[in-house]
Amino acid sequence: MTEILVIVEHRKKQLTDTSLEVLSKARQLADEAGYKLIATVIGRDVIDYTAKIASWADKVLTLEKEEMEDSLAEFCLRPISWLIKERCPKLVLASNSLFGMELVPALAMEIEAPLATDCTDIRIENDDIRVRRTIYNGKMEAEYSFVPSSTIL
Q1: Cα–Cα dist 64/108, whole Å
Q2: Is 151 a residue whose pLDDT tops 70?
Q3: Where are the alpha helices (DSSP H) in 44-122?
Q4: Quick one: pLDDT at residue 153?
Q5: What does the alpha-carbon distance between residue 100 and residue 107 come to, in Å, rounded to a whole number?
Q6: How far apart are CA 152 and CA 114, in angstroms?
Q7: What DSSP element (H or E) covers 152?
Q8: Helices and strands of the chain, counted as H and E runs
């Protein structure tokens, strides 16, 4: 089954609000497209977050890293790129936070996948991913689609 993967972020022993927003949108997309929603979280004591994440996701994948109290991109790059290569999700979503802005472009380079940042909307039409972004300093909106790819970030 086709999957959407959400990279969940945590700070100060709590899930970030932006990650919960991304999970909510991903759940909507997965339901509309008939996809499975997978969420992943990496760090210390992440098992504590699984019940809350599971209220959105069909499956929660965790990786305990004792030295990582908060989400840090440098520790997440290798395990998440491995996970993407293993599972081949159609779409990978993350928060537009410092963590996401550092991690996701590096992931796109690592797995050689298309990347869309600063999106204001996303939808799936006939199995095609479409994103909306503001351009020209917020004066216009543009909609983009992607050439066929196994995974889009």
Answers
A1: 23
A2: yes
A3: 50-54, 73-87, 98-111
A4: 85
A5: 10
A6: 5
A7: none
A8: 4, 9
Tokens 């959400």: give the residue. 6
Helix (H) or strand (E) holding 5: strand 3-7
What SS3 class is residue 16? coil
Q: Would you give the DSSP letter of residue 32?
A: H
Torsion of CA 19, 7, 26, 117, to 10 degrees: 90
Chain mean pLDDT for the chain? 91
Residue 57 to residue 142: CA distance in whole angstroms: 30
What is the amino acid identity at position 19?
S
132 and 143 in contact (C-beta within 8 Å)? yes
Structure token pair of residue 24: 């909510």
What are the distances in angstroms from CA 1 to CA 29, 32, 34, 56, 80? 14, 14, 9, 17, 19
User: Taking residues 10-32, what's their average pLDDT?
Assistant: 94
Q: Which residue has the tokens 């999970």?
A: 23
H or E stretch at 39: strand 36-43
Burial (Cβ within 10 Å: 0-12, 13-18, ≥19) of residue 58:
middle
